[in-house]
Amino acid sequence: MAEKVFIFDTTLRDGEQSPGCSMNLDEKLQMARQLERLNVDILEAGFPVASQGDFEAVKAVAAEIRGPIIAGLARANQLDIDRAWGALKEAARPRIHTFLATSDIHLQYKLHKTREEILKMISGAVGQAKSFCDDVEFSPEDAGRTDRSYLIECCHAAVEAGATVLNLPDTVGYCMEPEYEQMFAEVKARVPGMDKVVLSTHPHDDLGMAVANTLAGIRGGARQVECTINGIGERAGNAALEEIVMALYVRRDFMPFYTELHPAELFASSQLLTRLTGVAVQRNKAIVGRNAFAHEAGIHQDGVLKRSITYEIMTPQTIGMTSNEIVLGKHSGRHALAKRYEELGYQLTKPEIERVYQLFSQLADRKKNIYDEDLIAIVDEGFQNLPEMYTLKLFQIVSSSDGGSTATIELELEGEAFRDSATAEGPCDAAFRVIDRIIGIPGVIADFSVHTVGPGAEGVAEVTIRARFRGHEFTAKATSHNVVEAAARAYLSAANKAAYELKRRQASAEEASESVQTN
Ligand code: KIV
Ligand code: ZN
Predict the structure, then answer these.
(1) What share of the chain is helix, strand, coil (3-state, %, to 5)?
(2) What angle do CA 296, 299, 302 make, to 5 degrees?
(3) Which of 79, 21, 9 is nearest to 45 (CA)?
(4) Whose CA is nearest to atom 8 of ligand 1?
């Protein structure tokens, strides 16, 4: 009989920790709602002690998301565990996930502690977590490089103190499949009381083995897998959730396991994460890459047209990717557009549909065929639901061959128009400077990338910008037929996020200082 494998999603914790993937509170909530639609079993919402922002995000997710178990990470010390519980206590089903490194390399160079001291810390931390909630997960960090007998002792200490889940991370992505499988089999066989404990995998992808090692861990006895959407995570990333789920689904004949995930939400989850972080997956990414179901060679096209099974081991519809060409044209209405977005996995509110519809109409005036890719790209601009938002009303660039460009831009905020001009060496710089002047928070570009979406001459430019405003980075993406306009729109979107977030932070700092004064 097939056995269930529990999906533990750590996109909002290990994933969010990776460079360029940070999200604000509103973005984390959007992602958490999508993960709930995807039906993940456990959602690790963050590392509450890491910052006030992380604490608030975990608290907000715990208060709103009722389907999955909500986990929060804590190092094996009192403050971290207190803080984790503070953020988690409103969850319908909370889990404290505490961890401590156990490899000699980490003990000697990072923690400067003896093996005995570590064992005591594990018992203390798991015991403290257990005093708050029943569901406690323990991770011996760097388990993959930990001396096996000592690992068994650490796991034993955690189980005796009440851990209900034991996660064995390959923190540095070093293990080979048979080794990783064997580690699970040994822990299961040698640690007393394992019949009541769930074993969990957590490999990193430094050698490109994270998904293969996850499957190896399952073969060794793990029934929970820790993974992230698009495989985002520290360094080379974590194991990609969509790859694990589809490998288990497509090869259920070979591995007798199932998950309760809704695969039709995979593509939408991947797209949403890309939109929120601005970090795109490579075209040939398994399952959710743009080319994952594209057939270029004539022989392949011929085969797929005759019978898709010739070259497709799963259909794009299974993961929620609908047929690529859209029949919507410039006469299509809001209803048809909203329905199409729904099919693509986007739940748009009325104001969002209105905004997306305006962008769609502009594009349909200029472009005969509108593809799903175009719709996904333009939703970036239509989706902004920040309360105070500057919108682009007018955009004009004059560039001359002897260098120097002048941008004139008009932005609107709550019905009031602001127009200004600036000159700089390049047209994008000039546009950014005008936006800086109007919004009043100057930004510095940290990353700028352009690529085309849609086929050939029909393609539109998609610009992704990562910019730093007052020490905080924000990422945004925009599309247009005009590269400079796409850049200006992306920069404006990042500046809007910055203005909103900085204002929110200031308000919560003021609130905190008021409560200190009144206490
Ligand atoms: O990779 C790792 O070891 C981790 C732990 C905190 C679980 O992310
Ligand atoms: Zn990790």
Answers:
(1) 50, 20, 30
(2) 90
(3) 9
(4) 14
Decide whether any atom of ligand 1 lies within 6 Å of the 102 Cβ. Answer: no
**159 close to 166: Cβ distance less than 8 angstroms:** yes
For the stretch 225-280, pLDDT in tens is 999 999 999 999 999 999 999 999 999 999 999 999 999 999 999 989 988 887 88
Residue from 39, 149, 169, 146 nearest 99 by CA: 169
DSSP-derived secondary structure letter, 108: I
Residue with the smallest CA separation from ligand 1 atom 5 is 141
Ligand 1 pocket, residue 99 CB under 6 Å = yes
Closest CA to 489 of 390, 388, 367, 370: 390
Q: Are 138 and 178 in contact (CB under 8 A)?
A: no
Does the C-beta of 17 come closer than 6 Å to ligand 1? no
The answer to whether the CB of 171 is under 6 A from ligand 1 is yes
DSSP class of 15: I
Q: How many CB atoms lie within 10 A of CB 315?
A: 11
The token pair at 194 is: 């394992």
Instruction: Lay out the sheet containing 391-399: strands in order across.
Output: 391-399, 405-413, 416-424
Provide the whole-model pTM.
0.78
The per-residue DSSP string of 253-290 comes to: TTS-EE----GGGHHHHHHHHHHHH--PPPTT-TTTST
- Of the residues 17, 54, 75, 99, which should be mutated to test ligand 1's pocket, given the most ligand atoms within 8 Å of the CB? 99
125-128 own/partner pairs: CB under 8 Å, 24+ apart: 125/74, 125/75, 125/76, 125/77, 125/81, 125/98, 125/100, 125/161, 126/76, 126/98, 126/157, 126/158, 126/161, 126/162, 126/163, 127/161, 127/162, 128/78, 128/81
**How do residues 372-393 score in pLDDT, each as one tens digit?**
777 877 776 555 555 568 989 9
* Backbone phi and psi for residue 442, each to the nearest 5 degrees, phi listed first: -65, 140
CA dist., res. 362 & res. 397, Å (int): 19
